[in-house]
Amino acid sequence: MTVEEAGRKGGEATSKTHDREFYEEIGQKGGEATSKNHDREFYEEIGQKGGEARANQRDDNSDSDGKMSKAEAGRKGGEARARQRDND
Question: Do 68 and 48 meet the contact criterion of CB atoms below 8 Å apart?
């Protein structure tokens, strides 16, 4: 059995014994722990990387059609996450 298969089986077994609230709670705890260990620049960087990855998924990366550029998407994502972190 591969590690991937074992992980999938473990996830399926866990999902049978826990409800949505369980996963929301552990997700929130993980987010809170992460926000305590990272600064604004970290979130700006991952926001930019996410924007770039999303832009690379599109067939046409031009913004002549009114779509946000990947740099702008990354900047906005990083800023939004930083604001959210500041409010927490």
Answer: no
Q: Which residue has the tokens 């722990």?
A: 33
Neighbours of 51 (CB within 10 A): 21
Closest among 84, 76, 73 to 38, alpha carbons compared: 84
- The total of other beta-carbon atoms located within 10 Å of residue 29's CB is 10
Distance, in Å, from the CA atom of 64 to the CA atom of 19, rounded to the nearest integer, reads 45
Please identify which residue in the block is written with the tokens 């089986």: 9
CA 41 to chain centre: 15
Q: What is the DSSP letter of 67?
A: P
Could you tell me the mean pLDDT of each successive run of 10 residues in the chain, 88 residues long?
Answer: 91 89 90 87 90 72 62 86 82
Whole-structure pTM over 0.85, yes or no? no
- Alpha-helix residue ranges (DSSP H) falling in 1-88: 3-17, 20-37, 40-57, 70-87
